[in-house]
Design a protein that fits this description.
28% of the residues lie in helices and 20% in strands. By secondary structure, the chain is of the alpha+beta class. It has a 5-stranded mixed beta sheet, with helices on both faces. It is globular and about 75 Å long. Helix 11 runs antiparallel to helix 13 and helix 17 runs antiparallel to helix 18.
Length: 595
Amino acid sequence: MRYLFFIAVLIMPLLAQSKTLPKDLQWETNNSADTWADPNATKGGVFNDYIISFPPTLRTIGPDSNNSFRSFINANKMGLVSFHPTTWEIIPEIATHWAYGADKKTVYYKLDPAAKWSDGKSVTADDFLYTIKFMRSPHINAPWYNNHYTEQFEDVSKYDDHTISITGAVARSKEELHYYYGLGPTPEHFYGELDGDWVKKHNWKIVPNTGPYQISKIKKGKSVEFSLKENWWAKDYRYNKGRYNVNKVVIKVIRDDNIAFRHFEKGDIDSFDLVHPDYWHNKAKGKLFDNGYIHKVLFYNDMPRSASGFFLNMDKPILSDNDTRIGIAYALNFEKVIKTVLRDDYERLNAFHEGYGDYSNKNVKARPFDLEKANHYLTKAGWTEYNGSGIRIKNGKELSLEISYARKEHTDRWTIIKQDAKKAGINLELKLQDATAQYKTVMQKQHDIAAMGWSTGFKPAFWQHFHSDNAHKPQTNNVTNFDDKQIDDLIMEYRFETDTSKRIALSQKLEQMIHDSAAFIPSFKVSYTRGAHWRWLKFPKVPGTKTSATLYSPFGNGGVFWIDSKMKIDTMAARKSSTRYTPVNNVYEQFKVTQ
């Protein structure tokens, strides 16, 4: 029945071509919010960055697309509107104006006639209609997108080439209408008709976009290069002035962070994130820093925290038992890791959704390391015998599991976890993988325990991670294979609830149930970003925004830095002659959250 419904939706004539606009619409725009860049920033130069593995595909949709490199591509896609990164006001992007329908489900948009694709084609209403057709197509092999754009979008209508409306499935607040029913254009002139070969055909095709940069060169396995569009259509708009200043962004593949740091010290990479305590305290020091060639920055932010921790695959027989999972949670000494390896720079994350205001359940607390409770739950689960190595046994099988992770520098923290878990009779094998290999392992649901994190959103999102529609199948974000009918019902109720107080209550209830399952065991959070950059990298007076996860993003809400080419030449010469500058260690507390 689900399949028949899906096919029926695909052929329904939802995409009206000739509707008449309501006469009483109140059009709004916003060209008065604070800007967050320096309009006097210098243009030009090349920004060098790195990633630890080459992307498995350039597609942002379909198999293997949910990898970290996708963020670079998506950051060069303009939406209808966006949210101000500090005030959260609605600001224009492709849409110049917007208005709200009386049904509280519909938003009307006037598109900017100047908006262009990378290939020079105009962005029109038809590109938004095509997005719905594209996202609902079975040929893209993306179940989450098929479901989301079928169930969450009721109608997309065209009134003329530059006027559309989007109607969502349920009424929402104005801000939520833009977020949950936000729609980007898709270039029909590039994709055309979709077919069964779409995934394979588009693995390495460079798709036209609407943002400031476009991929201009690919060296398979080595690097990806982005070039600034010379006549980008939105370059002189209010919220883009002083941004996207470098002419080229070169992202090199360096598979080890320690090697990458050596490249940084040579000046081959312009910046380096230093959230990891070992880098901040131990490696980011010496002559380069003392002589002022490289500057250090600590910048506090205020934003939802990444859902970082251990994701337990409940399709594995050992992990299918709730008491076993709870016992494992109590046997993981994250507190010791924080105090030793992480030098008390990090804090313990308590829940999957933390930092979302009232939507977060502040009563949910991560289970602390407690051997007495670990032993209680593991014994209750039937792990009552031990082998000669002190590892628990049940029905002749050891309590032995693999922790899959993708960062070599995390080995020391997981070694502590492994050592203290053995005190509870648990054998944890550490499995370091290339980031791409780990991603594929997790997406195929072949892991035991995955050490990883998910990016944040506007409000807590449960369906993709915890609904059974996404369990027991590859290429979905339900990597724990969570499958619970009661939670399914609550997730759907939360998804379609329009009353804010009820929605908050549902969110908090779901968070408690996720905690009770111990399918996700929270690890760490930080309330800041910190890093280092060569002195030729320049910033506005305040180098980031309230929601800056890094200061060195060249795209998205970033792109506020610029390169002083003369200073780069002078710095390299000074380094050779041992000329010294004043050391710089800047701390920015504008957005620091006080407890």
